[in-house]
Amino acid sequence: MSDLRYVAIGDSFTEGVGDERDDGIPRGWADLVAQGWATSRGEPIEYANLAIRGKLAWPVVDGQLESALALRPTHLSFNGGGNDMLRPGTKIARIVDAYVKVVRRCREEGVTPILLAGADPSGGLPMSRLIRSRGDELSDAVIARLRREEDIVWANNWTDAELRDPTFWSPDRLHMNTRGHHRVAARVLGALGADAPESWWVSPDQAAAHLGTREYYRAHVAPWVRRRVTGRSSGDGRAAKIPEWVTIRP
Which PANTHER family does this one have (predicted)? Predict the structure, then answer.
């Protein structure tokens, strides 16, 4: 087994939704980081991804963290809170507590934590000002709470103004497309001290998928509202994409 073992936990952002392969399975930034990291090192690494779409921050921690640590990784990435921010009444401090627990458990197990702030989707969403304000608050609060902790790898995508451009986003306006996931992967690799292909930062534009307002609400907003009303999640019944180590070669 490689001496570098990377496991990712989180929600749809980390699962890779919006960057689907030809077989329909999401790839996404975490898969790209694993591949880019192995290539930069010139050596294989071990990789697992336990993320499941639709999860709130604490269900990610409660349902994925200990399973991830049981794999005995050297590095663990975590992002959460995006789904929480879309729900009224969510307490920012409660989301921050989830980040603190991830860091604490990583410290106890000798694992290097990689913390991500997701990209800002607010420009294409209803209630955009509220979503951006809450995202700003969450990003600032996590950094303020954990900034004195040593050896955290930080990848803050929320403040990347270029990532707000529609050409980085999929038709649902909530998940990044292939172009967006590559830019996030490049930022994570840079934070790890690894080299990312320059094209991942400045990949060719993808045509922005502009549905008309009525079509967009029918295709994407209405199903989201129905899930909230019925207490369901897009992740119900789904298992982790890569629950055990796979070897990623350069």
Answer: GDSL-LIKE LIPASE/ACYLHYDROLASE, PUTATIVE (AFU_ORTHOLOGUE AFUA_2G00820)-RELATED, GDSL-LIKE LIPASE_ACYLHYDROLASE, PUTATIVE (AFU_ORTHOLOGUE AFUA_2G00820)-RELATED
Identify the CATH number of the domain defined by range 5-234.
3.40.50.1110
Q: Which is nearest to 119 in space by CA: 70, 155, 68?
A: 155
Burial status of residue 52 (CB atoms within 10 A of its CB: 0-12, 13-18, 19 or more): buried
Tell me the per-residue pLDDT of 97-126, one tens digit each, with 9 for 90 and over: 999 999 999 999 999 999 999 999 988 777
Distance CA 78, CA 86 (A): 19
Tokens matching residue 157? 């995508």
Cα angle 17, 59, 92 (rounded to 5 degrees) comes to 90
The mean per-residue pLDDT over the stretch 196-202 comes to 92
Give the tens place of pLDDT for each residue, 19-33.
999 998 999 999 999
Q: How far apart are CA 121 and CA 81, in angstroms?
A: 13
d(CA 224, CA 80): 18
Burial of 213 (0-12, 13-18, 19+ CB in 10 A): exposed
Residue 48's SS3 state is strand
